[in-house]
Write a structure and sequence with these properties.
This protein is α+β, with helices and mostly antiparallel strands. It has seven helices and ten strands. It has a single domain, classed as Phosphatase 2c, domain 1. It is globular.
Amino acid sequence: MTVANMNAMNATAEIQRPSDEERDMYGLTHPGKVRKDNQDHFLICTVHPQVTVDVTSLPNVDDLPLRGSRLATVALVADGVGGSDSGSDAARLAAETVARYVSSTLRSYHTAGSASEDLMMQALEDAVLQAHDVVRAEGAARAEPKPMATTLTVCLVVWPWLYVVQVGDSRAYYFDGTTLHQVTRDQTVGQHLVDTGALPQERLSASPFHSVLASAIGGPKAAPRVSRLEFRRSGTLLLCSDGLTRHVTNDEIAAHIRTMTSAEQLCHLLVDLALERGGKDNITVVVGRAPKRTTATV
């Protein structure tokens, strides 16, 4: 086989759409060593077109192809704000609202990667803003009204495109097989001060504004940021709450992705590492990938 043929085969393998069974996905959350409750929530789900038969005279309805091929894969992390149940409730409501929106309202999957993909990006922003409205309404309707807030980072894969929408400081990373890219940028007061030159980057971790959210679901302001990049079979997606990143650096995350054996193994390794270093907050890690096939399939 020539080098050109090998390169062509490798390029084809990189963009080949994975089957449902080829995806390697896992999520793990832990309350940490300091906080009593876990206010983080995560979700990994698959979107399929599906027909549910209520009544029929057909004799072999179970043999009919009633579920279509995968439209999209969705993963999200929500980190509730505050030390009471309201933070956990906000994260749960945000995750449930996005799941409902994706399953019943989002209709623009076909625009992914096309000239009309603004429809997809707007739909994702709408899903997150709907979660914002739901959380704010719930906080106002309670017997003792109080603010409820959460971060929310949602990733939607319509192969081979990865869309990321973020509010807050829960992060999304994409490892392209060589380099780790932080797709999101923390929406905190501290990061804003760094961006505007008012605070040196090296002093950010010690700043009292380091974890003060400038944008949050349910908070005074929710400013979703939507981005898109191309997914490859050599790539790995990682979502996490700041309970991981306050203890584990980007370089360490990249190093562990390079040697990972499975999504489950990597989630456990990173959570354990954060716990070993103090576990000062709830820790959530979600990992997804679709490794290249090692053997030819028919």
